[in-house]
Design goal:
- The complex is a heterotrimer of chains A (119), B (101) and C (130).
- Chain A has 119 residues and is of the alpha/beta class.
- Chain A has a single domain, classed as DsrEFH-like (Hypothetical Protein Ychn, Chain: A, 3-Layer(aba) Sandwich), CATH 3.40.1260.10.
- Chain A is built from 4 helices and 5 strands, in the order βαβαβαβαβ.
- Chain A has a 5-stranded parallel beta sheet, sandwiched between helices.
- The N and C termini of chain A lie far apart (26 Å).
- Chain B is an alpha/beta fold and 101 residues long.
- Chain B has a single domain, classed as Hypothetical Protein Ychn, Chain: A (3-Layer(aba) Sandwich).
- Chain C has 130 residues and is an alpha/beta fold.
- Chain C has one domain: 3-Layer(aba) Sandwich (Hypothetical Protein Ychn, Chain: A), CATH 3.40.1260.
- Chain C has 4 helices and 5 strands, in the order βαβαβαβαβ.
- The longest helix of chain C has 14 residues.
- Chain C is globular, with a radius of gyration of 15 Å.
- The relative contact order of chain C is 0.23.
- Classes of the chains: A alpha/beta (119), B alpha/beta (101), C alpha/beta (130).
- At the A-C interface, α4 of A face α1 and β5 of C.
Chain lengths: 119, 101, 130
């Protein structure tokens, strides 16, 4: 089955993006496909390669990139939400791309199930 | 039938209450993150779930329960614990998912 | 917009429901939700917009936001009709709990009881909440 995932919160304020990551990983390990993960609101901070969590903390930015590399997951950051927060192409972690909100709607149309993680 | 996910503590927000107001009989409700506190028995809000037990199916995300030190607390009878793989199965088997964020 | 279709309309039309449960201004959720509604309309999907809980406050008439440095986005709800977004619903229980009536709202809406809302929600294929 194809899943679309919407992530509305950043990695340092709320559990939502961890929940989304663990859900995506579990789905992929069960043989499902993630059609797209769309990052909106503060969720765009998941794509910031300049973020440096402390050594004993998980590094969600790197975990997303690794997931994208291993499973070819499409990680899309909303352009309007990103620009407001200073997230631009040159600070995007590997595997992420910036695009329009239309990509979220397309995910809703193309995926068999669309699920939201947020606050 | 829909799967509803609730991630807010019932002591702080009305998300679960609102969710149950519009959840059809036969729907699934999965408690995640701070939503898991609603699954504990003998609290001021246990009745929220008990009143719909039997016509709505309640699930709780086990890793979130354990993380909050609730692994050995008594849960309301009939609430089923799932892991992330079980979460994926629930999303798959329901027609759509509504997140009460 | 890159998403617009050439002719003949979209290949797939799904039932999208947007559930607005947050008050405006205190947090950003309501404003960005409205952006999502407008984009879905551009994709010619079957869009349903529900206001419940504090979401009904988004529709309150006479919002004056100048003194708090925020853009008043409530007039945008009146423009939705121009984007063929005409299915606006307010949950009766939420409206009444806040001492409001449809006369307090900036746009005409259909008022549904939570019982009526149940049936409508269950038919949706994609539900986006904030």
């Amino acid at each position: 089955m194809k899943f679309g995932i919407l992530v509305n919160e950043g990695p340092f304020q709320h559990q939502a993006s961890d929940s989304a990551y663990l859900f995506a990983k579990a789905a992929l390990e069960k043989g499902h496909e993630i059609y797209r993960v769309f990052f909106y609101y503060d969720g765009v901070n998941n794509a910031n390669k300049l973020s440096e969590p402390q050594a004993d903390d998980r590094d969600l930015v790197k975990l997303w990139s690794a997931l994208a590399e291993e499973y070819k997951v499409d990680l899309v950051v909303c352009v309007a939400a990103a620009l407001r927060r200073g997230i631009k192409d040159d600070i995007l972690a590997p595997g992420f791309r910036i695009s329009g909100l239309g990509q979220l709607i397309e995910s809703g149309i193309q995926a068999d199930r669309q699920i939201t993680f947020g606050d | 039938m829909l799967l509803h996910t609730v991630n807010k503590s019932p002591f702080e927000r009305n998300s679960l209450e609102s969710c149950l107001r519009v959840a059809e009989d036969g729907a699934g409700v999965l408690l995640i993150e701070d939503g898991v506190y609603a699954a504990m028995d003998n609290t001021q809000v246990s009745d929220l779930i008990k009143k719909r037990m039997g016509n709505v199916k309640f699930y709780v995300l086990g890793p979130d329960v354990d993380a909050r030190g609730l692994g050995n607390q008594s849960m309301i009878d009939g609430v089923e614990s799932v892991d992330y793989a079980g979460f994926v199965d629930l999303v798959e088997k329901h027609s759509a998912t509504q997140a009460w964020v | 917009m890159e998403e617009e279709w050439d002719e003949g309309g979209p290949e797939v039309v799904k039932r999208f429901m947007y559930v607005n449960r947050k008050a405006p201004y205190g947090t950003v959720y309501a404003l960005e939700m409205l952006e999502k509604v407008l984009i879905a309309a551009a994709f010619e999907q079957d869009v349903h917009v529900v206001f419940m809980d504090d979401g009904v406050y988004q529709l309150k008439k006479e919002q004056e936001t100048k003194a708090i440095n925020m853009k008043n986005f409530s007039p945008t709800f009146r423009a939705l009709e121009g984007y063929d977004v005409e299915k606006l619903y307010v949950e009766k229980e939420s409206l009444e709990a806040r001492g409001l009536t449809v006369d307090d709202l900036v746009v005409p809406v259909e008022v549904l009881s939570s019982e009526e809302l149940k049936g409508l929600m269950d038919k949706q294929e994609v539900i986006l909440t904030a």
